Structure formats: structure tokens, C-alpha cells
């Protein structure tokens, strides 16, 4: 099943400057594995050494924050849109 992934500008160096890519995966974990297979090195920017999603990277499935869904086990369906959004902080 194909899912559309929106890549933030700082990570586009891993996706050959593509802002939008099509990827496979039935959940966020599988999607990350698929991204890593197609674009080596990107997963280390999104996950820590234990494979957990980094706290300062937000994932949205069809505009819904996965922290309020099922986290990295959030199910994906064909045609879904996953947005990867780096957290912004400041004062």
C-alpha cells in the first residue's frame, strides 16, 4: 500500500531533495523501515538508538498527531498522508 510522506527541508538531503515521496508500510514502524531502505541514513535522524521516535520530531497521519493515536504502531492505509515535522522551540 502506498502512503505519501511529506519530508521537511532539513531531511531532504537524504531523499535526493524530494519534498514528497511515496512509501510502503502498514504502520509508522514499517514506513520508517521502508524509508531507511530507500534513503539510507534518514531513520537515524527520526529515531534514537533504541528505535524510538525522537521527541523533537512530530509525525502526523492525515493531520492527526500520532501521539494521540497509537504512536509508532499507528495503522496506515493506502492513500494516507504522513507529515514529518521537526519541533520548533524558542522564547
TrEMBL record:
Protein name as catalogued: MoaD/ThiS family protein
Cross-referenced InterPro entries: Beta-grasp_dom_sf, MoaD_arc-typ, Mopterin_synth/thiamin_S_b, Sulfur_Carrier/Prot_Modifier, ThiS/MoaD-like
Stored Pfam families: ThiS (PF02597)
Domain of life assignment: Bacteria
